[in-house]
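seq:
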Amino acid sequence: MKQIFQSLKTGEISLTEVPACQAGDNELLIRSEVSLISLGTERMLLEFGKGNWISKALQQPDKVKQTLQKLKTDGFLPAFNSVQNKLETPLALGYCNAGTVLSVGRNVSGFNPGDRVASNGFHAELVSVPANLCAKIPDEVSSETAAFTVASSIALQSVRLLNPTLGERIGVIGLGLIGLLTCQILIANGCKVIGFDPQESRRKIAKSYGAAVANSDLSESVSAGMDFSDGYGLDGVIVAASTSSSEPMSAAPQMCRKRGRVVLVGVTGLELSRDDFYKKEISFQVSSSYGPGRYDSFYEEEGHDYPYGFVRWTVQRNFQAVLELMADKKLKVDKLISSKFAFEEAEKAYKEVCDSKDAIGILLEYDTEKDLSVQTLTNTHLSGSFIKADSGNAALIGAGNFANKILIPELQKSGFSIKAVASKSGASAAFASAKYGIPIMTTNTDVIFSDNSINSVIITTRHDSHAEYAIKAIKSGKHVYVEKPLAMTVKELENIKNAYHSQAEKPVLTVGYNRRFSPLSLEAKRLLGETNAPVAINILVNAGQIQPDHWTQDPQIGGGRVIGEVCHFIDLALFLAGSEITATDGVYMKSLSGYVTNDTLTASLSFKNGSIASICYFANGSKDFPKEKIEIFSDGKTITIDNFKSLKSYGFPNAKNISLWSQDKGHQNCVKAFYDGIRTGVLPIPDEELFQTSLYSIKLAEKAFGK
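struct:
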């Protein structure tokens, strides 16, 4: 299958062959028939991509601030590589799709193969979309019309926020695609509408729908708005313009009556005049996408609906509402279609996006007879280095940001020959294949497990699939590298142990606990080897906040930050103490409401040899403060490691302090140890230590929830 991507580095559009995606448990697999190019959003992305570094920085000041913070705490190279990696990651375009369901996920109800659906799927021949972001298309509505469903829902959500009543007089500033759809929805709602735009062609279309029109020049638009409302001022204004100017946000309150409402659905400058809003008590809201549920993983990814009686208009129900308007001929899109292109002519379509100022809606039409079943592709244009490894071929399951930025380069530097890469969507696998010269890309992991020439599997997927893939790899007789965590539950851990110990010839099993392999950790361990005394370890982690709805915080998907991140520091303490863990305990910070914040805690560990460790993992600190600090005390001696950039020792004769040019958390050494372990049979981390770290991470996480 093919899919459209944009390079954020150059702005170039590419039509890329990727492995066919599959439907997840809460998703639909859809064959695309028509998709709509959103001129406002996608033109903005194209212009961003074509801009130089200074232009990109000016458009994203928050990202610049994040980069400067990373530069300060981690050093130049990690900060530079982070920016480069983000710009080199292609962006999938499109969110207005109409097509036919091919298959449904096992948790999905209400949809069947053969249903015609509108969704927010990408510009791709095949898309997998959460069922809650899909709606059935009525028989009376063509796929061409239904492709406007998502854009119409964006317009509808702005109208719902404005909450107009029958007979109210409403202004719409900006008569692009969203603005013209907004005009029609307001008219269908019984409102009197006036639209503002500098382009006469767009004003003509709005007028044909029954709206009054005027130029959007500031003084002229305010005067026209006042005249349209008999001098009282408009009841409300929806700003659907796309401009860096703040002029629309200046005009909107000026043309409103006292206690009028302003809703922003477009993208404009936001230099607001307080007087414009204050003197009339104007209310102002920003409309978010297509309705309640958007950007909520509980709704989108997990497939839970909001209660009908409490959230009447969710994303899906907004989709259904606009499709009903289309079926009733109250929402018409024929005048909004500027051009149609075959999907294969995508580059021509995007040239028109850039060149034509009059275009409103551009449609892409797909070949519905093409075979889209191919889930495994071979890269015939290898661009990366390819190293023949005496340890055999490796395969990667998961090709996300960490894998592309750190793990794959380190695997290849260590001597691995990566034969295959698999990912759920296929897109990330395709780009990893192109970037790093990996011959096979797939969405079918069975291809990897059944390939006898592949002797090592590296697992970098979301945490909830780690145990499943690790067990499959072990039972397939392959060596396994699991990016932490190894398991999310005690049951998963026991299943892994059983699979591992049942093998007559045990594979090399390791987890990406890279910090024990940092040059500074290794030096600390060497210094501690001079004494047999127990050690006291204090590890401070300024982890920073992650939003509660991030997948890593979800107990079912990510397991929380103790299982997903604190495990790193349990392993490091285990390594430095040189003895098995005998007990663990944890104290979690509580908010003022009493809610347990399971990512801000102090954990204590006791070891068989008398050593102790405390791990202070805090998510409530400043980003300007260094992220990690380790202090080790033993037999009158002390060692400190500061953010894995420097080591200082006290009380060790002839020991030298170490300062690194850039932060080194041990990723390269960790991967190299796995490679060497396959050749020599020496485990990078003793298996019982892997299992101990997992067990005590799980126990510590359970304590947060009173288990």
